Amino acid sequence: MSAPPIENQKLSLQIIGKVTAEFATILTTSALAFVEDLVKQFTPHRDELLARRLERQQQIDVGQLPDFFPATAHIRQDNWQVGPTPADLQDRRVEITGPVDRKMIINALNSGAKVFLADFEDAQSPTWSGLIEGQINLRDAVNQVIEYHSPEGKRYQLNSQTATLLVRPRGWHLPEKHMLWQGKPIPGALMDFGLYFFHNAHTLITKGSGPYFYLPKLESHLEARLWNDIFNYAQDALEIPRGTIKATVLIETILGAFEMEEMLYELREHCVGLNCGRWDYIFSFIKRFHKYPDFVLPGREQITMTSHFLRSYSQKVIQVCHRRGAHAMGGMAAQIPIKNDPQANEMALTKVRADKEREAKDGHDGTWVAHPGLVPIAVEIFNKYMPQPNQKDRQLETIDITAKDLLTLPTGNITEAGLRNNISAALQYLEAWLGGNGCVPINNLMEDAATAEIARAQLWQWIHYPKGVLNDGRKITVDLVRQTIHQELESIRNQVGEPRYQAGHYPLAAKLLEQITTQDEFAEFLTLVAYEHLP
Ligand SMILES: CC(=O)SCCNC(=O)CCNC(=O)[C@H](O)C(C)(C)COP(=O)(O)OP(=O)(O)OC[C@H]1O[C@@H](n2cnc3c(N)ncnc32)[C@H](O)[C@@H]1OP(=O)(O)O
Ligand SMILES: O=CC(=O)O
Ligand SMILES: [Mg+2]
């Protein structure tokens, strides 16, 4: 299917957000016509697939546990490979991620990592200004003219050698309320993908790179097929050969784990890898089984990648990817460097090292880091275990991961410290997110939308089921959570001081957290609830 010429189209997309002179360089008539085309072509199907997610949830709610589909067994058995991997994606040993903030984009591209994932998703609060500024920043980065002057007088610009750029658009669930089509918010993913692709695809190709994407939170191979259709449509519209776009799919939902091979198949012309998005994966595990009183997980600090269900899933990702010629990317350790406390810092770095070492030894072809200070550590470990650009030739055919492995509950307990940490982290994260910041350090850990989802999902689960009991015997109740939210809010208020507290969004964060954890219904996404309050 090829798109009609953009110049002949009459624009019916409505822009509700502010359009400054600088924003107008992104929100051009041609770019908006392109986004509008994508929206017209693909929104109805996106809506159907979101409805299908709810149907799957209803099936699970009545006891149908997920399993590998008999109907797609031929895809898992047949002989096929993904399309070729471009030269600048062959070696992905360390990928740094970060929001589309101007300074951070420069720092990340200069960090020494092989790849930079510029994030419109877990690490980005989707304010209108933040998103459009992010598009400006990315365009300037692609054109190698990006600069930043800090208030302290420091000047930032790109090094001669930089990381390969990958962009992660928002997940299918997130709307963009500042762009309306037929009076309704458009899918945020189509805005992020459409604007970035329209403005940068040709330049990237000319530079010898390409339009590369990370695809988040997919729940089924049909959702992967939708992205494939979008890629074909977009490439045809801009007269770019099909197969030029290269994507990496995050396996970060429990249902997606049962269809990872099918997802790779659907996107085989466009897909070069899968990634273990461990944080959303844990969240998805809690969410999809939230009706099961026995599926109550221990405190999130105890759910590590060595837990059977997570280790099994990461091994499955490696097995599937290597069988099909794709990169099997590892995930993000939550630890970040700790300033002014060498001992605590060393302990954090030891945890990061152990995580990266396990990934490299297991067969991952690369990993994620959250901070430039972690790049040399991860590089050193992957250099040691993977001197070659990747280890795709390592086949894990003797490993047999079953549905039971993927559904084995992690063991552990729930402590008061864990309860307080979930409440405090969710409160502080939500407050930051409502203020336009999508990734923050809290207690020396990186917290983003995925980790905050785990925190609030656990609180809901612990309140609602008999197994939600602290290790000192106290049942976690609505009253206990309310009272602890209040206490943690006061403690944060003392810590940040009155001016910061008054200028921030703390009471709203507390209200939303209380609502989402104590209500009967399990909210599909925290970010959807909070988005109503975002400018
Ligand atoms: C579950 C998932 O989806 S994981 C993927 C999503 N999450 C992310 O992308 C995490 C990204 N990381 C971050 O946002 C940050 O590292 C944080 C918020 C965790 C910590 O940030 P800070 O407290 O500002 O870190 P810190 O003060 O140590 O930063 C030192 C320098 O490194 C820079 N920096 C820190 N993290 C990054 C990053 N990820 N990319 C680029 N630069 C970074 C800072 O901008 C700062 O630069 P400067 O010295 O030039 O001013
Ligand atoms: O996106 C990554 C995750 O862990 O979630
Ligand atoms: Mg994620």
UniProtKB/TrEMBL annotation:
Its EC number is 2.3.3.9. InterPro entries: Malate_synth_C_sf, Malate_synth_sf, Malate_synthA, Malate_synthase_CS, Malate_synthase_TIM, MS_C, MS_N, MS_N_TIM-barrel_dom. It catalyses: glyoxylate + acetyl-CoA + H2O = (S)-malate + CoA + H(+). GO terms for molecular function: malate synthase activity. Pathway: Carbohydrate metabolism; glyoxylate cycle; (S)-malate from isocitrate: step 2/2. Residues 14-74 form the Malate synthase N-terminal domain. Residues 414-534 form the Malate synthase C-terminal domain. Keywords: Glyoxylate bypass, Transferase, Tricarboxylic acid cycle. Transmembrane segments: none annotated. Belongs to the malate synthase family. This is Malate synthase. It comes from Thioploca ingrica.
